[in-house]
Amino acid sequence: MACNLAIAGVTGAVGQEFLKILEQRDFPFDSLKMLASSRSAGKKFKFKRKEYTVEELRKNSFKNIDIALFSAGGERSREFAPAAVEEGAVVVDNSSAFRMSPDIPLVIPEINPQKIKEHKGIIANPNCSTIVGIVPVWPLHKANQLKRMIVSTYQAASGAGTSAMMELENQSKQLLEGKEPTCKAFKYQIAFNIFSHDSDIGPNGYNTEEMKMVNETHKIFDTADIGITCTCIRVPVFRTHCESINLEFTDPISPEQVKDLLSTAPGVSLIDDAENNRFPMPVDATGKDDIFVGRIRQDESVPDKRAINIWVAGDQLRKGAALNAVQIAEKLL
Q1: Do 303 and 147 touch, CB atoms closer than 8 A?
Q2: Using one digit for the tens of pLDDT, what is the confidence trace for 61-99?
């Protein structure tokens, strides 16, 4: 089955990743409409040996569109996604606009694909750090109910878009040339530096990114019984988020059991070579579909062998964003 497809936000980092993944996976479509802001209208992109002209994203852009992939930011999603639904399209939205709406499915196909059929026109894509973290946690939770999860993220510049990746590159050059770094995309210097994630701090002391991981995980796992706490950090890496995750389970669990469960888990690959101190790195996951897992070890501070530490790496632009949305679209077909 093919469809009439639209991409809203096609000129951004995730929008460009949409195009790569659609071509690599040979996504079936009859027509493709590329949409972006007025300042990007008129740009041309080649896709599958055909040249497309970017059109301005408007409320009347979705006539005869079956599926619309959105990565244009929350404000534009709130403005234009309902208009797409009114025209009969199903929107797969990559922003935070609809994720916590009770009647809108929040989907990771490896975890809760059954939620797709519950959509009323909009399906939400989870936050990148949520996807990267919980794809490998889900098969463990199914086998042994999770009680608590402690997450520390090491998030790449790609999470803030193309301008942030360019800023990392430009600042690195400036500093190596002995110049002062120019800060525009980020408030603070990103090259050769790390800082707390650049999202707003709430009254509870946690930033928006950290609370996204807590709330989205509870919704996707369909339980609020798991205690979750997060610390999200921005690091000077172009793309691919890494996360250190501590998991406490209801019953005892061993590193060997974890490796066995993850060895057959969809969307997961193991790199766990303690003998050579070789574990997942951003260079392993960049451009790859899977979430890479390693450093699987017992947390000896928790009695009865009920806790495990793992380290994960996942490409934020692929599985953390564009790939997850395309997988949802494939299931819609």
Answers
A1: no
A2: 999 999 999 999 999 999 999 999 999 999 999 999 999
Tell me 301's DSSP state: T
pTM of the complete model: 0.95
Residue 113: exposure state from Cβ atoms within 10 A (0-12, 13-18, ≥19): middle
* Residue ranges with strand state E in 112-254: 122-124, 146-155, 195-196, 227-234, 241-249
Q: Mapping DSSP to helix (H, G, I), strand (E, B) and coil, where does residue 110 land?
A: coil
In the chain the domains, ranked by start, together with CATH numbers, are 3-126+321-332 (3.40.50.720), 131-316 (3.30.360.10)
Of 244, 217, 242, the C-alpha closest to 228 is: 217
CA distance 280 to 242: 8
From CA 105, how far away is CA 124, in angstroms rounded? 6
Report helix, strand or coil for 239: coil
Q: How far apart are CA 123 and CA 331, in angstroms?
A: 12
Residue 313 CB burial class (10 angstroms; 0-12, 13-18, ≥19): buried
* Amino acid at position 55, single letter: E
Q: What is the spatial distance between Cα 264 and Cα 160, in angstroms, rounded to a whole number? A: 32
- Cβ atoms within 10 Å of 315's Cβ, excluding its own: 28
Report the candidate in 206, 228, 208 with the shortest Cα–Cα distance to residue 219.
228
Active site residues: 128, 241
**83-139 pLDDT, tens digit each:** 999 999 999 999 999 999 999 999 999 999 999 999 999 999 999 999 999 999 999
The closest of 196, 68, 221, 204 to 130, measured between CA atoms, is 221
How wide is the angle at C-alpha 163 spanned by C-alphas 69 and 330, nearest 5°?
20
Residue found under tokens 């999603």: 77
273 forms beta bridges with 278
- The position carrying tokens 């996204």 is 212
Cα separation, 2 vs 129, in Å, equals 31
Cα dihedral 254, 256, 260, 266 in deg (nearest 10):
70
